[in-house]
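so my prof wants the structure for this chain in the tokens format not the other one, which i didnt know existed until like an hour ago. anyway here's the sequence
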Amino acid sequence: MAAAAELKLLEKSLRLSKGNKYSAQGERQIPVLQTNNGPSLTGLTTIATHLVKEANKEYLLGSTAEEKATVQQWLEYRVTRVDGHSNKEDIHTLLKDLNLYLEDKVYLTGYNFTLADILLYYGLHRFIVDLTVQEKEKYLNVSRWFCHIQHYPGIRQHLSSVVFIKNRLYTNSH
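here's what i got, hopefully its the right format
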């Protein structure tokens, strides 16, 4: 896997250049990408999917029909459930649900790293970075997944590294 190409892909999709802008939709800002030879593209998932295809990295969109649908489901989840939420109660509900989902999975689609993992990692970073050690332990599957994604070559970039302990601090045996 060419980490340098994925790095450039992420940089384009998540930190748009000066020539691009954001469109206001309520209180949220929606990214807009002006393409070289076509209309401007609006929306994080639309832009990210376009850039994946432009970079010939379509495997990041899934390899089977089911995996492709799962990737799209998680991209939609990122925009509808993660973005715009800052209420601590909402975030804990989201993390609880995600923790249960990731119980038997390495990546969001199961065993393959996809665009869904990249965009959900970026969307959750601002929340995960503020979790206490005990909260990280409470959401152990999310912590495992997040730690794995942040160490994937070329992914973390400018974001701060989130520290996870290797051994559980507390046990239930007293």
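also thought this was worth mentioning. The CA atoms of residues 27 and 107 lie 31 Å apart.
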